[in-house]
Amino acid sequence: MRLLKIKLSGFKSFADPTTLEFPDGIAAITGPNGAGKSNLIDAVRWVMGESSAKTLRGESMPDVIFGGSNTRKPAGQASVELVFDNSDGRVGGDYAAYNEIAIRRVVGRDGVSQYYLNGTSCRRRDITDIFLGTGLGPRSYAIIEQGTISRLVDLKPEEWQVFLEEAAGVSKYKERRRETLARVENTRERLERVNEIRDELTKRLNQLAQQARQAERFGRSAKPSGSPGAGFAYWSRKSFAMP
After folding, report:
1. How many structural domains is the chain composed of?
2. Which CATH number does the domain housing residue 118 bear?
3. I need a labelling partner for 111 at 20 to 30 A (CA). Which of 19, 57, 75, 207 fits?
4. Tens-place pLDDT, residues 60-87
5. Residue 159, CB half-sphere, CA atoms under 13 Å: how many?
6. Nearest of 172, 155, 48, 158 to residue 103 by alpha carbon
7. What does the DSSP 8-state code read for residue 75?
8. What is the pLDDT of residues 209-239, one digit of tens each?
9. Which among 129, 107, 49, 36 has a CA at the least distance from the CA of 82?
10. What does pTM read for this prediction?
């Protein structure tokens, strides 16, 4: 799996639509300070689903949008697209048959992001899911910034484990396991709630059944003997008899 292209528009210093193509082998991006080299790395992180503005050297997500200059108006939105060569089938599942995988992210001044996978609108999770275990997920080891090596030396064993699991392709299975356990726990809690409601309804039903039996017994004991209306007729004759 290899990065073929980066397409940017309105992202940080890239005010105009810009496309960078990467040939086979090793590619190097050079330039003076302020040329936008670090912004390219930020663009890759951002389109892969980075949600921390601080990681992108900003205060809020709209900070990635070109803010204007003395000669240019601010951009209304930022857009970044990455095109990957997937001829080796590294991205499996529904996208294994695609020789190229294109992911795109767009954000407006309202800070709301939209994601696209091969031109189709999708969720952020859809993008992070397909790249789990490739080194380009949220715990990416494919991007090594200045100072990263020195930080790696000081990592604790459990922190090293995260990188090793991502490199070995285990992270996606652990993520699936975590999601499955979360669904199981959610189902268990809902089942407990259903059982509580069932017990409450059963208790209420028993109370109503008991009240119904009491009402039935009362009705039988209050019913006058003889034919219906006989007691009323006798009472009427007695009440209105002449003295």
Report:
1. 1
2. 3.40.50.300
3. 19
4. 888 999 999 888 999 999 999 999 988 8
5. 6
6. 48
7. P
8. 888 888 888 877 766 555 554 444 444 444 4
9. 49
10. 0.63
